Amino acid sequence: MTQRYWDALREVEDPEMPVNLVDLGVIYGISESAGGVVEVDLTFTAMGCPASEFILEDVRERLLREPGVNEVRINVVWDPPWTAGRITEAGRDALEAWGLAV
């Protein structure tokens, strides 16, 4: 059931890089509970990320458009820390297409 949420978050791009949050590797987990509550564990590429509020709002807004989702709870986690090793092959391809080496 949560696969549709992963797919939805593939539509949310990082505001500073031309890659979606899933392929960037910042989404650590998604779960769903009764009452249409979706919980997302995510991190940022750096502490003090200037785009963090934009990202949180974009995640919340996108998931609330999914049928049956009434509430989105986002947990910002720092363990394990994000590294470039979390970027998917598709994410690497997107970054390289923009001239960004990873």
Mean pLDDT equals 94
**Radius of gyration, rounded?**
13 Å
CATH class descriptor? Alpha Beta
Shape: globular
Name given to the CATH architecture: 2-Layer Sandwich
Oligomer: single chain
Q: Kindly identify the CATH topology.
A: GMP Synthetase, Chain A, domain 3
Low-confidence stretches: none
How many beta-strand elements? 3
Helices, by number, come to: 4
Query: CA-to-CA gap between the ends?
Result: 32 Å
Explain what the structure shows.
With 102 residues, this protein is of the alpha+beta class. The chain has one domain: Fe-S cluster assembly (FSCA) (GMP Synthetase, Chain A, domain 3, 2-Layer Sandwich). It has helices at 3-9, 21-24, 52-64, 89-97; strands at residues 27-33, 37-42, 71-76. A three-stranded mixed sheet has the order 1-2-3.
Please describe the topology of this protein.
Blueprint: H1 3-9, H2 21-24, E1 27-33, E2 37-42, H3 52-64, E3 71-76, H4 89-97
Parallel strand pairs: 2-3
Antiparallel strand pairs: 1-2
